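queue> pop job 88
queue> type: inverse folding (structure -> sequence)
queue> payload:
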């Protein structure tokens, strides 16, 4: 059975462009409840650990560089079928392929600077949530 928790980050491009409020509004309008939320900045080391699963991919260094280039907003979200529904809400990785009305269609700049992260499985949502938040920061 699908779980009800997912994990997201508003990436440095979207924070710098002033889109935190617009993106959080799209998320809550789509029926997600915010269980944890913080603005922070990832060091290269922490960004590298977070994206360890992509270590062998050609864009890994670029991704780590970008994700540590400025502040981000991390959040744990709750909704029925959270992981899949959130992936639908954010749209395809490349905004050129993202469906109209999705967060990436509206806010992403390109395939790398694509406004938001969304966990891709229940296991990764749990891992990523506890990577960024202690149990006392999740409500
Ligand atoms: P996802 O974020 O849609 O799950 P992934 O394939 O898991 O996409 O890639 C993780 C992140 O790595 C993307 O969101 C994007 O920021 C970056 N990325 C993916 N593909 C490329 C690429 O071809 N060039 C540069 N960055 C990329
Ligand atoms: Mg992914």
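queue> result:
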């Amino acid at each position: 059975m699908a779980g009800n928790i997912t994990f997201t980050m508003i990436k440095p491009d979207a924070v710098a462009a002033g889109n935190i409020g617009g993106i959080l509004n799209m998320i809550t309008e789509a029926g997600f409840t915010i269980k944890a939320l913080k603005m922070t900045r990832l060091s290269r080391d922490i960004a590298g650990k977070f994206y360890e699963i992509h270590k062998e991919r050609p864009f890994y260094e670029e991704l780590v560089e970008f994700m540590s280039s400025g502040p981000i907003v991390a959040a744990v979200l709750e909704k029925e079928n959270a992981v899949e529904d959130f992936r639908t809400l954010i749209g395809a990785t490349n905004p050129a392929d993202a469906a109209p009305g999705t967060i990436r269609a509206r806010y992403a700049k390109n395939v790398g600077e694509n406004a938001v992260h969304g966990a891709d499985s229940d296991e990764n949502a749990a891992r990523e949530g506890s990577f960024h938040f202690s149990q006392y920061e999740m409500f």
